Amino acid sequence: MTGGIEESFNTKDIKDKDQFWQTMGIALKHDAMVGCSITPDPTEREAKMTNGLIKGHAYAVTAAVRVKLTTNEIVQIVRCRNPWGNEVEWKGAW
Asked: What's the pTM?
């Protein structure tokens, strides 16, 4: 589609999460197109979850950052954009 090199990752198969995080950060820094989705049950198609996300729907990853909480814990968060741009939005914490 873009003439670029495509690479896929299943988060269940990632052995070194820090390396994956670094790889994603480098891709975003170089303006690569990064996306994600939640694998649906084979009998479902684009099933809405209680948190508002849609299984089987593609989301654009627009940022990935580490955030230090008031407890001094560092968490990694990913900002995703729904390309539909409709009322289907995240309803979870944060």
From this structure: 0.78
User: What confidence tens digit (pLDDT) does each residue in 29-76 have?
Assistant: 999 999 999 988 888 777 888 888 889 889 999 999 999 999 999 999
DSSP string across 34-50? -EE--PPPTT-SSPBPT
In the chain the domains, ranked by start, together with CATH numbers, are 11-81 (3.90.70.10)
Q: Which residues are tagged catalytic?
A: 57, 82
> CA separation (Å) from 83 to 8, 57, 67, 72?
19, 10, 25, 34
The residues, ordered by sequence, that sit 6+ positions from 56 with a Cβ below 8 Å of its Cβ are 37, 38, 39, 40, 44, 45, 46, 47
For tokens 């809405």, what's the residue? Answer: 48
Read off the tokens for 52. Answer: 């508002």
